Known about the structure:
The protein is α/β, with parallel strands linked by helices.
Amino acid sequence: MGVTMFRNLFLVLVPEPAARVVHEDDLSTTAIVPVTSADEAAAAAAGGWDLVELYGGLGIDAAAAVVAAAPGVPVGFAGDLGPSPAPVVLFEDPAADPERHRWRFGSTTVMAVPSTGDTPGVAARLVAEGATRVELCGGMGPVPAAAVRAVVDVPVATVLFGFESLPAAAAYRARFEAAVS
């Protein structure tokens, strides 16, 4: 394992408390933290993160609370969608094994996929298994989201960042691009 350059926090709305998971790759440590409320999300976000993303129905109120709790940190969320019976969250890790890097938090599944090109097939399989919404990491964006939407019949969302987060998100991306080049 190389030196961790990025500390990411993925907050996932769940109905009941659950244990966090930590996913590491050569560039980052990502804490996947289930939370039951916007207040819990804000409390988890106060802690030296480089990036925070909200999933599973954490909408505008939670995003606003997290922005206030983590000033200067890019905070993204997948829209004000509300909870879904069985959402899936997909993020990219080139070294991922989608079966080994798959976690369940109640009815929510979080999974790493090796590439954005794999995302539509993985999403289609998860929807066939009962997923009711697909949410994509902010590192993927709308192009993979459109590809996923073309192959599934459930809502698809991607994490986007508000105007207040754009300078910090751009700085994060510049650091990321420098680290992988």
